[in-house]
Design a protein that fits this description.
The protein is mostly beta strands. It has a single domain (10-31, 56-136), classed as Pnp Oxidase, Chain A (Roll), CATH 2.30.110. Helix content is 8%, strand content 47%. The chain contains 1 helix and 10 strands. Strands 1, 2, 3, 6, 7, 8, 9 and 10 form an 8-stranded antiparallel sheet that branches. The protein has a two-stranded antiparallel sheet with strand order 4-5. The longest helix has 11 residues, at 73-83. It is globular, with a radius of gyration of 19 Å. It starts with 9 loop residues before the first strand and ends with a strand.
Length: 137
């Protein structure tokens, strides 16, 4: 089993037109996808709860932190998805030997920033995924 180095991992947006790397990324995180269930336990059920699949999945959210540059075109483009909401195509390319990718579309964007006297200006973006990520080995 290989251990994949993260240095060189790239996050790009607008991947259906002309892929553009976000740049200056410190970290990325997908909070996880989940198959939906509901509690099917009734008063006359056996000793344990029963769960039933809904047939739906929750795609989750994707977050990334950057050394934020308020005038960098790539950061401004992501921020523009807040003031002018639009679906956006994204792709993560991992730094493994096969350059594995994960594609997803976002439908909502959040942004915040941190100013700390002992650190660089940092920005945090959160993307609401439209559907499940597409895993491409």
């Amino acid at each position: 089993m290989a251990k994949v180095v993260t240095k060189g991992t790239v996050l790009e947006y607008d991947v259906l037109v002309t892929p553009v790397a976000v740049g200056q990324i410190i970290s990325m995180s997908h909070d996880g996808a989940e198959a939906g269930t509901w509690d099917g336990t009734s008063l006359d059920s056996g000793p344990s709860r029963t769960h039933v699949g809904t047939g739906y999945s929750e795609p989750g959210s994707f977050a990334f932190e950057v050394f934020f540059d308020p005038v960098l075109a790539n950061h401004k483009a992501v921020q523009a998805l807040i003031t002018t909401p639009a679906e956006q195509a994204w792709q993560i390319t991992f730094a493994d030997s096969g350059t594995t990718t994960q594609r997803f579309d976002s439908v909502g964007v959040g942004f915040g920033f941190d100013v700390d006297m002992d650190d660089g200006l940092k920005g945090s973006f959160t993307l609401k995924l439209k559907e499940l990520m597409v895993y491409t080995p």
